[in-house]
Sequence to fold (356 residues):
Amino acid sequence: MSTTPLAPPAARPAGDGRAAALRELLRSRKRLLVLTHNNPDPDSLGGAAGLQEFARSVGVASRLAIAGKILRAENQAMVRELGLVLDRVEDLQIADFDCVAFVDTQPGFGHTIVPAGVRVDIVIDHHVCAEGRLGAADCAFFDVRTDAGATSSIVGGYLLAAGVTPSSQIATALAYGIRTDTADLSRNVSPLDLAVWDYLSPHIDRQKLAAITNPRLPVRYFEALKQALSKVRLYDGVTLCSLGRTASAEMVAEVADMLLRMEGVRAVFCGGLVGAQYHVSVRTELGGDAWALIRAGMDGAGGSCGGHGSVAGGAIPMEGADTRALRRLERRLERNVLHAMGVAGGNAAILGDRDD
Ligand SMILES: [Mn+2]
Fold:
């Protein structure tokens, strides 16, 4: 990724000047390409759609393109209910665009592909990540705020600052992005998230928001969940769930979310092999540092990770790994996490193992 050609540096916007600086930049361009994670989550979709709205308000046409898939049923419902238009990156001519933005991710992150020949002009994100290769000096507009609960809040803040009234489609997309990344405004929340939520609130389509939040789920989802619950190992305050091979990275994240709700659990470390990647999700209680825990957990295992506040995720390449190599990796991760949490190994309970 270090070979990515970069736009020339420009003056750094500060404070409320960010929306004005972004508007100035877009006014000098004609066609914007918005990119995000390979398999985008609601915050990246919301932030991307919000940036498209901002560009539209300046008179700049844009496309939103992804390299992977929309995996989770809720995310598919978000695209369907809100009529979000997504292109596949490989179907577009990159040369047709004179401006490229990365939203809710940064070039150099493990779960993000920068297409060949792309010059990155705009980076809007809230993740901290050791693998981030770009800094404020590398692109024309760089706004990474690790204190923001959601990228959708940062983008919503531009619309708010610019006095744009959001359509119900965009307000609902941004609101769902904020809700998912902040667990309904309960986790990693900053004053920006609250201000943007208040601004969006009158414009949210609440029927659609409900339909997105609780979509129907396929039978294979429940099968994967049943398998996952059989792999749960409970330690004192820490829950581990090494899934072995599993259906999707989303299931790894979803199981981690669910297990953190268990009484007495301070941290969850969940992992599973999907294709040639071992995916890891870490959740900690409010005030916990999920990124520190995932870095400790993945110590010596390679791969890349990122996170914010009490949520972190990562991936470790495992091309051609056999079952023994997979098991070895999972044991190593488990050992690292227990050590980092100061918990003795060897005394795990499983679900259904209790006497009472
Ligand atoms: Mn996010």
